[in-house]
Design a protein that fits this description.
This protein is an all-alpha fold and 604 residues long. Strands 1-2 form a two-stranded antiparallel ribbon. It is elongated and about 90 Å long. Helices cover 75% and strands 1% of the residues. Pfam families: FUSC.
Length: 604
Protein backbone atom coordinates (compact mmCIF):
# COMPACT_ATOMS: atom_id res chain seq x y z
CA UNK A 1 0.00 0.00 0.00
CA UNK A 2 2.84 2.36 0.81
CA UNK A 3 4.48 1.73 -2.56
CA UNK A 4 1.27 2.56 -4.39
CA UNK A 5 0.91 5.84 -2.50
CA UNK A 6 4.50 6.83 -3.24
CA UNK A 7 3.98 6.37 -6.96
CA UNK A 8 1.08 8.83 -7.06
CA UNK A 9 2.12 12.46 -7.79
CA UNK A 10 1.20 15.08 -5.21
CA UNK A 11 -1.91 16.95 -6.34
CA UNK A 12 -3.74 20.15 -5.52
CA UNK A 13 -7.44 20.14 -6.48
CA UNK A 14 -6.71 16.80 -8.22
CA UNK A 15 -4.16 18.51 -10.48
CA UNK A 16 -0.48 17.41 -10.22
CA UNK A 17 1.79 19.90 -8.50
CA UNK A 18 4.05 19.87 -11.59
CA UNK A 19 1.16 21.27 -13.66
CA UNK A 20 0.56 24.01 -11.09
CA UNK A 21 4.26 24.90 -11.11
CA UNK A 22 4.23 25.07 -14.91
CA UNK A 23 1.11 27.26 -14.99
CA UNK A 24 2.46 29.68 -12.37
CA UNK A 25 5.75 29.97 -14.28
CA UNK A 26 3.87 30.91 -17.43
CA UNK A 27 1.85 33.56 -15.58
CA UNK A 28 4.92 35.08 -13.89
CA UNK A 29 6.86 35.11 -17.16
CA UNK A 30 3.92 36.80 -18.92
CA UNK A 31 3.75 39.47 -16.22
CA UNK A 32 7.53 40.01 -16.33
CA UNK A 33 7.53 40.29 -20.13
CA UNK A 34 4.76 42.91 -20.02
CA UNK A 35 6.47 44.84 -17.21
CA UNK A 36 9.79 45.05 -19.07
CA UNK A 37 8.02 45.95 -22.33
CA UNK A 38 6.12 48.79 -20.62
CA UNK A 39 9.27 49.98 -18.86
CA UNK A 40 11.24 50.01 -22.14
CA UNK A 41 8.21 51.52 -23.92
CA UNK A 42 8.33 48.89 -26.63
CA UNK A 43 5.98 49.35 -29.54
CA UNK A 44 4.68 45.76 -29.35
CA UNK A 45 4.33 44.58 -25.72
CA UNK A 46 1.64 42.11 -26.79
CA UNK A 47 4.24 40.21 -28.84
CA UNK A 48 6.43 39.85 -25.74
CA UNK A 49 3.51 38.35 -23.80
CA UNK A 50 2.53 36.11 -26.72
CA UNK A 51 6.10 34.79 -26.85
CA UNK A 52 5.58 33.35 -23.38
CA UNK A 53 2.49 31.47 -24.57
CA UNK A 54 4.44 30.14 -27.54
CA UNK A 55 7.36 29.03 -25.35
CA UNK A 56 5.04 27.39 -22.81
CA UNK A 57 6.96 24.12 -22.57
CA UNK A 58 7.16 22.00 -19.45
CA UNK A 59 10.96 21.67 -19.34
CA UNK A 60 13.82 24.14 -19.51
CA UNK A 61 15.56 22.50 -22.45
CA UNK A 62 12.44 22.46 -24.60
CA UNK A 63 11.78 26.16 -23.90
CA UNK A 64 15.40 27.03 -24.77
CA UNK A 65 15.31 24.97 -27.95
CA UNK A 66 12.05 26.53 -29.11
CA UNK A 67 13.27 30.03 -28.17
CA UNK A 68 16.35 29.64 -30.35
CA UNK A 69 14.31 28.56 -33.34
CA UNK A 70 11.81 31.38 -32.70
CA UNK A 71 14.57 33.98 -32.84
CA UNK A 72 16.10 32.47 -35.98
CA UNK A 73 12.74 32.21 -37.74
CA UNK A 74 11.86 35.78 -36.80
CA UNK A 75 15.06 37.03 -38.44
CA UNK A 76 14.26 35.04 -41.58
CA UNK A 77 10.68 36.34 -41.59
CA UNK A 78 11.74 39.97 -41.18
CA UNK A 79 14.23 39.64 -44.04
CA UNK A 80 11.54 38.04 -46.23
CA UNK A 81 9.11 40.83 -45.31
CA UNK A 82 11.60 43.50 -46.35
CA UNK A 83 12.37 41.67 -49.59
CA UNK A 84 8.71 41.13 -50.55
CA UNK A 85 7.63 44.69 -49.81
CA UNK A 86 10.77 46.06 -51.43
CA UNK A 87 10.11 44.28 -54.72
CA UNK A 88 6.34 44.68 -54.84
CA UNK A 89 5.61 47.79 -52.78
CA UNK A 90 3.82 49.49 -55.69
CA UNK A 91 1.27 46.69 -56.18
CA UNK A 92 -0.78 45.33 -53.29
CA UNK A 93 -1.98 42.28 -55.24
CA UNK A 94 1.59 41.28 -56.04
CA UNK A 95 2.54 41.55 -52.37
CA UNK A 96 -0.28 39.17 -51.46
CA UNK A 97 0.65 36.79 -54.29
CA UNK A 98 4.30 36.81 -53.27
CA UNK A 99 3.36 36.14 -49.68
CA UNK A 100 1.09 33.25 -50.69
CA UNK A 101 4.07 31.68 -52.49
CA UNK A 102 6.31 32.32 -49.47
CA UNK A 103 3.78 30.76 -47.12
CA UNK A 104 3.58 27.70 -49.38
CA UNK A 105 7.38 27.38 -49.35
CA UNK A 106 7.46 27.58 -45.56
CA UNK A 107 4.73 24.96 -45.17
CA UNK A 108 6.62 22.75 -47.64
CA UNK A 109 9.74 23.06 -45.46
CA UNK A 110 7.75 22.37 -42.28
CA UNK A 111 6.41 19.12 -43.73
CA UNK A 112 9.99 17.94 -44.27
CA UNK A 113 10.95 18.64 -40.65
CA UNK A 114 9.66 17.82 -37.20
CA UNK A 115 9.50 19.34 -33.74
CA UNK A 116 10.67 22.90 -33.29
CA UNK A 117 12.35 22.93 -36.69
CA UNK A 118 8.95 22.55 -38.31
CA UNK A 119 7.63 25.31 -36.05
CA UNK A 120 10.49 27.58 -37.11
CA UNK A 121 9.65 26.97 -40.77
CA UNK A 122 6.01 28.04 -40.38
CA UNK A 123 7.01 30.93 -38.12
CA UNK A 124 9.17 32.25 -40.95
CA UNK A 125 5.98 32.20 -43.01
CA UNK A 126 3.46 33.86 -40.74
CA UNK A 127 5.98 36.46 -39.52
CA UNK A 128 5.63 37.99 -42.98
CA UNK A 129 1.87 38.07 -42.45
CA UNK A 130 2.26 39.83 -39.11
CA UNK A 131 4.70 42.37 -40.53
CA UNK A 132 4.33 42.88 -44.28
CA UNK A 133 0.62 42.13 -44.60
CA UNK A 134 -0.40 44.36 -41.70
CA UNK A 135 1.81 47.14 -43.08
CA UNK A 136 0.69 46.65 -46.67
CA UNK A 137 -0.44 50.29 -46.87
CA UNK A 138 2.75 51.56 -45.16
CA UNK A 139 5.64 49.58 -46.68
CA UNK A 140 8.15 52.11 -45.38
CA UNK A 141 7.36 50.94 -41.83
CA UNK A 142 8.12 47.27 -42.46
CA UNK A 143 11.71 47.46 -41.22
CA UNK A 144 10.74 49.48 -38.16
CA UNK A 145 7.86 47.15 -37.34
CA UNK A 146 10.09 44.11 -37.82
CA UNK A 147 12.70 45.48 -35.42
CA UNK A 148 9.99 46.22 -32.86
CA UNK A 149 8.70 42.67 -33.14
CA UNK A 150 12.22 41.26 -32.76
CA UNK A 151 12.84 43.38 -29.64
CA UNK A 152 9.56 42.23 -28.08
CA UNK A 153 10.32 38.56 -28.81
CA UNK A 154 13.76 38.96 -27.23
CA UNK A 155 12.17 40.41 -24.10
CA UNK A 156 9.72 37.50 -23.97
CA UNK A 157 12.49 34.93 -24.33
CA UNK A 158 14.63 36.54 -21.62
CA UNK A 159 11.64 36.74 -19.30
CA UNK A 160 10.92 33.05 -19.76
CA UNK A 161 14.57 32.14 -19.15
CA UNK A 162 14.70 34.19 -15.94
CA UNK A 163 11.50 32.73 -14.51
CA UNK A 164 12.48 29.17 -15.47
CA UNK A 165 15.84 29.62 -13.75
CA UNK A 166 14.45 31.21 -10.57
CA UNK A 167 11.67 28.63 -10.25
CA UNK A 168 13.93 25.69 -11.11
CA UNK A 169 12.06 24.49 -14.16
CA UNK A 170 12.76 20.77 -14.62
CA UNK A 171 15.15 19.41 -17.23
CA UNK A 172 14.01 16.99 -19.93
CA UNK A 173 16.96 14.63 -19.52
CA UNK A 174 15.88 12.77 -16.33
CA UNK A 175 12.42 12.05 -17.68
CA UNK A 176 13.88 11.11 -21.07
CA UNK A 177 16.19 8.61 -19.39
CA UNK A 178 13.22 7.16 -17.51
CA UNK A 179 11.19 6.88 -20.71
CA UNK A 180 14.00 5.23 -22.68
CA UNK A 181 14.69 2.79 -19.82
CA UNK A 182 11.01 1.85 -19.59
CA UNK A 183 10.80 1.38 -23.36
CA UNK A 184 13.94 -0.77 -23.27
CA UNK A 185 12.31 -2.99 -20.64
CA UNK A 186 9.22 -3.39 -22.80
CA UNK A 187 11.30 -4.10 -25.92
CA UNK A 188 13.12 -6.85 -24.03
CA UNK A 189 9.79 -8.32 -22.92
CA UNK A 190 8.60 -8.26 -26.53
CA UNK A 191 11.79 -9.94 -27.75
CA UNK A 192 11.65 -12.52 -24.93
CA UNK A 193 8.12 -13.47 -25.94
CA UNK A 194 9.34 -13.92 -29.52
CA UNK A 195 12.20 -16.12 -28.33
CA UNK A 196 9.71 -18.33 -26.48
CA UNK A 197 7.90 -18.87 -29.77
CA UNK A 198 4.82 -16.86 -28.80
CA UNK A 199 2.82 -15.27 -31.66
CA UNK A 200 4.04 -11.84 -32.74
CA UNK A 201 2.15 -9.10 -30.87
CA UNK A 202 1.71 -6.56 -33.64
CA UNK A 203 0.00 -3.98 -31.43
CA UNK A 204 2.92 -4.01 -28.98
CA UNK A 205 5.44 -3.70 -31.80
CA UNK A 206 3.69 -0.72 -33.39
CA UNK A 207 3.15 1.03 -30.06
CA UNK A 208 6.82 0.71 -29.13
CA UNK A 209 7.92 1.86 -32.58
CA UNK A 210 5.74 4.98 -32.38
CA UNK A 211 6.91 5.85 -28.87
CA UNK A 212 10.58 5.59 -29.81
CA UNK A 213 10.27 7.69 -32.97
CA UNK A 214 8.15 10.31 -31.15
CA UNK A 215 11.07 11.03 -28.78
CA UNK A 216 13.24 12.36 -31.61
CA UNK A 217 12.40 16.10 -31.18
CA UNK A 218 12.75 15.91 -27.38
CA UNK A 219 16.20 14.34 -27.63
CA UNK A 220 17.49 17.41 -29.50
CA UNK A 221 16.33 19.76 -26.70
CA UNK A 222 18.48 17.95 -24.13
CA UNK A 223 21.60 19.44 -25.74
CA UNK A 224 20.79 22.92 -24.35
CA UNK A 225 20.15 21.96 -20.73
CA UNK A 226 23.73 21.81 -19.41
CA UNK A 227 27.38 21.78 -20.36
CA UNK A 228 27.09 18.02 -20.87
CA UNK A 229 23.84 18.37 -22.77
CA UNK A 230 25.35 17.63 -26.17
CA UNK A 231 26.89 14.41 -24.84
CA UNK A 232 23.61 13.30 -23.27
CA UNK A 233 21.69 14.20 -26.43
CA UNK A 234 24.04 12.09 -28.56
CA UNK A 235 23.76 9.18 -26.13
CA UNK A 236 19.95 9.44 -26.05
CA UNK A 237 19.79 9.58 -29.84
CA UNK A 238 22.03 6.51 -30.12
CA UNK A 239 19.84 4.71 -27.57
CA UNK A 240 16.70 5.50 -29.56
CA UNK A 241 18.26 4.22 -32.78
CA UNK A 242 19.53 1.10 -31.01
CA UNK A 243 16.07 0.49 -29.53
CA UNK A 244 14.52 0.43 -33.00
CA UNK A 245 17.27 -1.98 -34.07
CA UNK A 246 16.61 -4.26 -31.07
CA UNK A 247 12.87 -4.12 -31.66
CA UNK A 248 13.40 -5.18 -35.27
CA UNK A 249 15.68 -8.00 -34.12
CA UNK A 250 12.98 -9.21 -31.76
CA UNK A 251 10.48 -9.21 -34.60
CA UNK A 252 12.90 -11.09 -36.88
CA UNK A 253 13.70 -13.56 -34.08
CA UNK A 254 10.16 -14.88 -34.35
CA UNK A 255 11.09 -16.34 -37.75
CA UNK A 256 10.99 -20.18 -37.43
CA UNK A 257 14.14 -20.77 -39.51
CA UNK A 258 16.22 -23.11 -37.36
CA UNK A 259 19.40 -22.65 -39.36
CA UNK A 260 19.66 -18.98 -38.47
CA UNK A 261 18.15 -19.09 -34.99
CA UNK A 262 21.48 -19.12 -33.16
CA UNK A 263 22.75 -16.09 -35.10
CA UNK A 264 19.46 -14.27 -34.56
CA UNK A 265 19.72 -14.88 -30.81
CA UNK A 266 23.31 -13.55 -30.73
CA UNK A 267 22.28 -10.56 -32.83
CA UNK A 268 19.45 -9.78 -30.43
CA UNK A 269 21.77 -9.98 -27.43
CA UNK A 270 24.31 -7.75 -29.18
CA UNK A 271 21.73 -5.07 -29.90
CA UNK A 272 20.36 -5.30 -26.37
CA UNK A 273 23.86 -4.72 -25.02
CA UNK A 274 24.23 -1.68 -27.30
CA UNK A 275 21.04 -0.19 -25.84
CA UNK A 276 22.20 -0.83 -22.29
CA UNK A 277 25.56 0.79 -23.04
CA UNK A 278 23.91 3.84 -24.60
CA UNK A 279 21.58 4.23 -21.62
CA UNK A 280 24.57 3.97 -19.29
CA UNK A 281 26.33 6.66 -21.33
CA UNK A 282 23.23 8.87 -21.09
CA UNK A 283 23.07 8.37 -17.34
CA UNK A 284 26.80 9.09 -16.85
CA UNK A 285 27.15 11.81 -19.52
CA UNK A 286 29.74 9.84 -21.54
CA UNK A 287 30.20 9.93 -25.29
CA UNK A 288 28.71 6.75 -26.79
CA UNK A 289 30.89 4.39 -28.79
CA UNK A 290 28.72 5.04 -31.85
CA UNK A 291 27.17 8.43 -32.40
CA UNK A 292 24.17 7.28 -34.39
CA UNK A 293 22.13 9.80 -36.34
CA UNK A 294 18.35 9.54 -36.13
CA UNK A 295 17.33 10.43 -39.71
CA UNK A 296 13.75 11.46 -40.40
CA UNK A 297 11.78 10.13 -43.33
CA UNK A 298 10.77 12.93 -45.71
CA UNK A 299 7.87 12.67 -48.12
CA UNK A 300 8.71 15.31 -50.73
CA UNK A 301 5.53 14.93 -52.78
CA UNK A 302 3.25 15.26 -49.76
CA UNK A 303 5.23 18.27 -48.54
CA UNK A 304 4.98 19.95 -51.94
CA UNK A 305 1.25 19.30 -52.19
CA UNK A 306 0.70 20.64 -48.67
CA UNK A 307 2.63 23.80 -49.53
CA UNK A 308 0.57 24.37 -52.68
CA UNK A 309 -2.67 23.94 -50.73
CA UNK A 310 -1.57 26.35 -48.01
CA UNK A 311 -0.77 28.95 -50.65
CA UNK A 312 -4.18 28.35 -52.26
CA UNK A 313 -5.99 28.81 -48.93
CA UNK A 314 -4.28 32.14 -48.36
CA UNK A 315 -5.00 33.21 -51.93
CA UNK A 316 -8.71 32.39 -51.50
CA UNK A 317 -8.84 34.39 -48.27
CA UNK A 318 -7.03 37.31 -49.91
CA UNK A 319 -9.47 37.37 -52.84
CA UNK A 320 -12.42 37.29 -50.45
CA UNK A 321 -11.12 40.24 -48.42
CA UNK A 322 -10.32 42.23 -51.56
CA UNK A 323 -13.83 41.53 -52.88
CA UNK A 324 -15.47 42.40 -49.53
CA UNK A 325 -13.47 45.61 -49.14
CA UNK A 326 -13.52 45.40 -45.35
CA UNK A 327 -11.57 48.04 -43.43
CA UNK A 328 -8.53 46.70 -41.55
CA UNK A 329 -8.93 43.38 -43.39
CA UNK A 330 -5.14 42.96 -43.39
CA UNK A 331 -5.27 42.17 -39.67
CA UNK A 332 -7.74 39.34 -40.25
CA UNK A 333 -5.72 38.10 -43.22
CA UNK A 334 -2.63 37.83 -41.03
CA UNK A 335 -4.62 35.59 -38.68
CA UNK A 336 -5.56 33.39 -41.63
CA UNK A 337 -1.87 32.88 -42.35
CA UNK A 338 -1.11 32.33 -38.66
CA UNK A 339 -3.72 29.58 -38.22
CA UNK A 340 -2.90 27.93 -41.56
CA UNK A 341 0.82 27.90 -40.80
CA UNK A 342 0.50 26.49 -37.29
CA UNK A 343 -1.99 23.90 -38.54
CA UNK A 344 0.66 22.65 -40.96
CA UNK A 345 2.68 21.34 -37.99
CA UNK A 346 -0.22 19.08 -36.92
CA UNK A 347 -1.37 15.79 -38.47
CA UNK A 348 -4.78 17.28 -39.33
CA UNK A 349 -4.72 20.98 -40.37
CA UNK A 350 -8.49 21.23 -40.75
CA UNK A 351 -9.06 19.85 -37.24
CA UNK A 352 -6.63 22.47 -35.92
CA UNK A 353 -8.61 25.19 -37.72
CA UNK A 354 -11.82 23.81 -36.22
CA UNK A 355 -10.29 24.02 -32.73
CA UNK A 356 -9.24 27.61 -33.44
CA UNK A 357 -12.77 28.37 -34.64
CA UNK A 358 -14.21 26.98 -31.39
CA UNK A 359 -11.57 28.59 -29.18
CA UNK A 360 -11.88 32.08 -30.69
CA UNK A 361 -15.41 32.83 -29.34
CA UNK A 362 -14.45 31.32 -25.96
CA UNK A 363 -11.38 33.55 -25.86
CA UNK A 364 -13.51 36.56 -26.84
CA UNK A 365 -15.88 35.96 -23.92
CA UNK A 366 -13.02 35.42 -21.46
CA UNK A 367 -11.17 38.52 -22.71
CA UNK A 368 -14.35 40.57 -22.49
CA UNK A 369 -14.79 39.51 -18.86
CA UNK A 370 -11.17 40.34 -18.10
CA UNK A 371 -11.17 43.72 -19.83
CA UNK A 372 -14.60 45.11 -19.02
CA UNK A 373 -15.50 43.32 -15.78
CA UNK A 374 -12.31 42.46 -13.92
CA UNK A 375 -10.15 45.42 -14.96
CA UNK A 376 -12.99 47.78 -15.88
CA UNK A 377 -10.91 50.86 -16.60
CA UNK A 378 -8.01 50.17 -14.22
CA UNK A 379 -4.61 51.36 -15.44
CA UNK A 380 -2.38 50.16 -12.58
CA UNK A 381 0.00 47.41 -13.66
CA UNK A 382 -0.43 45.29 -10.48
CA UNK A 383 -4.16 45.05 -11.23
CA UNK A 384 -3.41 43.91 -14.77
CA UNK A 385 -0.99 41.28 -13.44
CA UNK A 386 -3.50 39.98 -10.90
CA UNK A 387 -6.34 40.06 -13.42
CA UNK A 388 -4.34 37.99 -15.91
CA UNK A 389 -3.57 35.35 -13.28
CA UNK A 390 -6.72 33.17 -13.40
CA UNK A 391 -6.93 33.31 -17.20
CA UNK A 392 -3.28 32.49 -17.90
CA UNK A 393 -3.00 29.89 -15.13
CA UNK A 394 -6.27 28.25 -16.16
CA UNK A 395 -5.23 28.02 -19.81
CA UNK A 396 -1.80 26.68 -18.87
CA UNK A 397 -3.35 24.01 -16.64
CA UNK A 398 -5.64 23.05 -19.48
CA UNK A 399 -2.63 22.80 -21.79
CA UNK A 400 -1.10 20.14 -19.51
CA UNK A 401 -4.14 17.89 -19.88
CA UNK A 402 -3.57 14.44 -21.37
CA UNK A 403 -6.77 14.90 -23.39
CA UNK A 404 -5.68 16.19 -26.81
CA UNK A 405 -8.77 18.38 -27.29
CA UNK A 406 -8.50 20.09 -23.89
CA UNK A 407 -4.75 20.50 -24.30
CA UNK A 408 -5.21 22.12 -27.72
CA UNK A 409 -7.87 24.49 -26.40
CA UNK A 410 -5.59 25.43 -23.51
CA UNK A 411 -2.68 26.25 -25.79
CA UNK A 412 -4.85 28.29 -28.13
CA UNK A 413 -6.30 30.21 -25.19
CA UNK A 414 -2.81 31.09 -24.00
CA UNK A 415 -2.55 33.30 -27.09
CA UNK A 416 -6.00 34.42 -28.25
CA UNK A 417 -6.99 36.39 -25.10
CA UNK A 418 -3.72 38.33 -25.18
CA UNK A 419 -4.23 39.06 -28.88
CA UNK A 420 -7.71 40.39 -28.18
CA UNK A 421 -6.74 42.28 -25.02
CA UNK A 422 -3.61 43.81 -26.61
CA UNK A 423 -2.06 45.05 -23.31
CA UNK A 424 -0.69 48.56 -23.55
CA UNK A 425 0.58 51.32 -21.26
CA UNK A 426 -1.79 52.88 -20.42
CA UNK A 427 -4.42 50.22 -21.12
CA UNK A 428 -7.15 51.33 -23.50
CA UNK A 429 -10.79 50.32 -23.07
CA UNK A 430 -12.53 50.65 -26.42
CA UNK A 431 -15.52 48.29 -26.79
CA UNK A 432 -15.76 48.93 -30.52
CA UNK A 433 -12.08 48.15 -31.17
CA UNK A 434 -12.35 45.04 -28.98
CA UNK A 435 -15.43 43.85 -30.86
CA UNK A 436 -13.77 44.37 -34.25
CA UNK A 437 -10.64 42.48 -33.14
CA UNK A 438 -12.71 39.52 -31.92
CA UNK A 439 -14.79 39.46 -35.10
CA UNK A 440 -11.71 39.58 -37.32
CA UNK A 441 -10.08 36.65 -35.49
CA UNK A 442 -13.27 34.57 -35.63
CA UNK A 443 -13.76 35.52 -39.29
CA UNK A 444 -10.19 34.46 -40.08
CA UNK A 445 -10.75 31.01 -38.58
CA UNK A 446 -14.13 30.64 -40.31
CA UNK A 447 -12.79 31.76 -43.69
CA UNK A 448 -9.81 29.42 -43.47
CA UNK A 449 -12.09 26.53 -42.51
CA UNK A 450 -14.25 27.30 -45.55
CA UNK A 451 -11.16 27.41 -47.80
CA UNK A 452 -9.99 24.06 -46.38
CA UNK A 453 -13.43 22.62 -47.08
CA UNK A 454 -13.23 23.86 -50.66
CA UNK A 455 -9.65 22.60 -51.09
CA UNK A 456 -9.19 19.89 -48.43
CA UNK A 457 -5.77 19.08 -46.97
CA UNK A 458 -4.00 15.99 -48.25
CA UNK A 459 -6.23 13.11 -47.17
CA UNK A 460 -5.07 10.38 -44.77
CA UNK A 461 -5.67 7.74 -47.42
CA UNK A 462 -3.54 9.57 -49.95
CA UNK A 463 -0.76 10.03 -47.43
CA UNK A 464 -0.86 6.33 -46.54
CA UNK A 465 -0.75 5.22 -50.17
CA UNK A 466 2.10 7.61 -50.89
CA UNK A 467 4.10 6.40 -47.88
CA UNK A 468 3.52 2.80 -48.93
CA UNK A 469 4.62 3.57 -52.49
CA UNK A 470 7.77 5.22 -51.12
CA UNK A 471 8.48 2.17 -48.96
CA UNK A 472 8.10 -0.13 -51.95
CA UNK A 473 10.23 2.14 -54.13
CA UNK A 474 12.92 2.35 -51.47
CA UNK A 475 13.02 -1.42 -51.22
CA UNK A 476 13.43 -1.81 -54.98
CA UNK A 477 16.24 0.76 -55.10
CA UNK A 478 17.97 -0.49 -51.97
CA UNK A 479 21.05 -1.74 -53.78
CA UNK A 480 21.56 1.67 -55.40
CA UNK A 481 21.55 3.75 -52.21
CA UNK A 482 24.58 4.95 -50.30
CA UNK A 483 25.85 2.53 -47.68
CA UNK A 484 24.62 4.21 -44.50
CA UNK A 485 24.55 2.32 -41.23
CA UNK A 486 21.72 -0.25 -41.17
CA UNK A 487 20.61 1.01 -37.74
CA UNK A 488 20.19 4.57 -38.99
CA UNK A 489 18.30 3.42 -42.07
CA UNK A 490 16.02 1.35 -39.81
CA UNK A 491 15.19 4.44 -37.77
CA UNK A 492 14.27 6.36 -40.92
CA UNK A 493 12.00 3.52 -42.01
CA UNK A 494 10.49 3.46 -38.52
CA UNK A 495 9.70 7.18 -38.77
CA UNK A 496 7.90 6.45 -42.04
CA UNK A 497 5.82 3.79 -40.27
CA UNK A 498 5.07 6.34 -37.55
CA UNK A 499 3.72 8.74 -40.16
CA UNK A 500 1.75 5.90 -41.73
CA UNK A 501 0.12 5.10 -38.39
CA UNK A 502 -0.58 8.80 -37.73
CA UNK A 503 -2.52 8.82 -41.01
CA UNK A 504 -4.80 6.03 -39.79
CA UNK A 505 -2.65 3.16 -41.01
CA UNK A 506 -3.62 0.88 -38.12
CA UNK A 507 -7.11 0.53 -39.64
CA UNK A 508 -5.76 -0.46 -43.07
CA UNK A 509 -4.58 -4.00 -42.32
CA UNK A 510 -3.45 -4.92 -45.84
CA UNK A 511 -1.45 -1.74 -46.39
CA UNK A 512 0.02 -2.04 -42.88
CA UNK A 513 1.14 -5.61 -43.56
CA UNK A 514 2.76 -4.46 -46.81
CA UNK A 515 4.48 -1.56 -45.03
CA UNK A 516 5.87 -3.84 -42.32
CA UNK A 517 7.02 -6.34 -44.94
CA UNK A 518 9.02 -3.58 -46.64
CA UNK A 519 10.45 -2.62 -43.24
CA UNK A 520 11.52 -6.19 -42.46
CA UNK A 521 13.06 -6.74 -45.88
CA UNK A 522 14.90 -3.41 -45.94
CA UNK A 523 16.34 -4.01 -42.48
CA UNK A 524 17.64 -7.52 -43.15
CA UNK A 525 18.94 -6.62 -46.62
CA UNK A 526 21.00 -3.75 -45.21
CA UNK A 527 22.34 -5.93 -42.40
CA UNK A 528 23.25 -8.62 -44.90
CA UNK A 529 25.01 -6.09 -47.13
CA UNK A 530 27.02 -4.88 -44.13
CA UNK A 531 28.04 -8.48 -43.37
CA UNK A 532 29.17 -9.03 -46.96
CA UNK A 533 31.29 -5.87 -46.81
CA UNK A 534 33.59 -7.74 -44.42
CA UNK A 535 34.73 -9.96 -47.29
CA UNK A 536 35.94 -7.09 -49.49
CA UNK A 537 39.51 -7.57 -50.73
CA UNK A 538 39.60 -11.14 -49.42
CA UNK A 539 39.39 -14.69 -50.70
CA UNK A 540 35.59 -14.60 -50.43
CA UNK A 541 35.16 -11.35 -52.37
CA UNK A 542 33.82 -13.15 -55.47
CA UNK A 543 31.33 -15.07 -53.37
CA UNK A 544 30.22 -11.86 -51.67
CA UNK A 545 29.69 -10.21 -55.06
CA UNK A 546 27.61 -13.20 -56.13
CA UNK A 547 25.53 -12.84 -52.98
CA UNK A 548 24.98 -9.11 -53.64
CA UNK A 549 23.82 -9.92 -57.15
CA UNK A 550 21.39 -12.47 -55.74
CA UNK A 551 20.14 -9.90 -53.23
CA UNK A 552 19.55 -7.39 -56.03
CA UNK A 553 17.52 -10.02 -57.92
CA UNK A 554 15.83 -11.25 -54.71
CA UNK A 555 17.01 -14.74 -55.67
CA UNK A 556 16.31 -16.67 -52.45
CA UNK A 557 17.48 -20.04 -53.84
CA UNK A 558 20.94 -18.64 -54.69
CA UNK A 559 21.16 -16.90 -51.31
CA UNK A 560 20.58 -20.20 -49.51
CA UNK A 561 23.11 -21.94 -51.74
CA UNK A 562 25.77 -19.34 -50.93
CA UNK A 563 24.90 -19.59 -47.24
CA UNK A 564 25.40 -23.37 -47.44
CA UNK A 565 28.81 -22.93 -49.11
CA UNK A 566 29.91 -20.47 -46.40
CA UNK A 567 28.74 -22.85 -43.67
CA UNK A 568 30.73 -25.71 -45.19
CA UNK A 569 33.80 -23.51 -45.39
CA UNK A 570 33.68 -22.59 -41.68
CA UNK A 571 31.59 -24.87 -39.44
CA UNK A 572 31.84 -22.52 -36.41
CA UNK A 573 28.58 -20.61 -36.09
CA UNK A 574 30.11 -17.64 -34.29
CA UNK A 575 32.73 -16.95 -36.97
CA UNK A 576 32.49 -14.15 -39.54
CA UNK A 577 31.66 -16.67 -42.25
CA UNK A 578 29.12 -18.42 -40.00
CA UNK A 579 27.41 -15.12 -39.18
CA UNK A 580 27.27 -14.20 -42.86
CA UNK A 581 25.83 -17.60 -43.74
CA UNK A 582 23.14 -17.31 -41.07
CA UNK A 583 22.37 -13.75 -42.16
CA UNK A 584 22.00 -14.87 -45.78
CA UNK A 585 19.65 -17.64 -44.68
CA UNK A 586 17.57 -15.22 -42.65
CA UNK A 587 17.55 -12.78 -45.58
CA UNK A 588 16.27 -15.44 -47.96
CA UNK A 589 13.51 -16.35 -45.48
CA UNK A 590 12.36 -12.76 -44.97
CA UNK A 591 12.48 -11.98 -48.71
CA UNK A 592 10.59 -15.17 -49.53
CA UNK A 593 7.95 -14.36 -46.93
CA UNK A 594 7.64 -10.80 -48.19
CA UNK A 595 7.36 -11.97 -51.77
CA UNK A 596 4.75 -14.55 -50.89
CA UNK A 597 6.99 -17.43 -52.02
CA UNK A 598 6.18 -19.51 -48.97
CA UNK A 599 7.48 -20.30 -45.54
CA UNK A 600 11.19 -20.87 -45.07
CA UNK A 601 10.73 -24.58 -44.72
CA UNK A 602 8.92 -24.79 -48.05
CA UNK A 603 11.43 -22.91 -50.13
CA UNK A 604 13.40 -25.92 -51.27
Amino acid sequence: MFATTAEQPFTVAKIPIASWSFAIRIWLATVLALFISFWLQLESPTTAALTIGVLAESTRGQALDKAGFRLLATVVGVVASIAITGFFSQARDLVLAAFAVWLGICVFAAKLLDGYRAYAAVLSGYTVALIATQQIDNPQRVFEFGMARGAAITVGILSMLVVNSLMFAPDRQPRLLTQLTAIHRRVRDYASAACRGEPDNLTTFLTLLQEIVALRPDIASVALESSSGSVRSTAARSAAVALVSELQAGRTKSDPASGASAWAARELLRRDEEVRQDLSDLRSARWPLRGWRAPLHRSWKTAAESGVRAAAWFAIASMFYIWAGWPAASISLSFVALIAALGATTPNPRAFTAIALVAAPIAAVLTGILEFVVLNGADAFPLLAIGLGPFVVGSALLATSKNLLWSSLGRVNLSFPLLMLAPSNPQTYNPQAFLFTCLFIIAAAALLFAAQTLIPPVSDEKRRMRLLAEARGGLQELDQTNREAPEEAMFRDASRIGKFLAAGGAQDSRALADMLSCFDQSAILRICDAKLMQFTDGSLEALADEAREAIAKRDTFTLRAIAHRLSERTPQQDSIEGDAAACLTMTSNVVARGSGVGSPGEAH
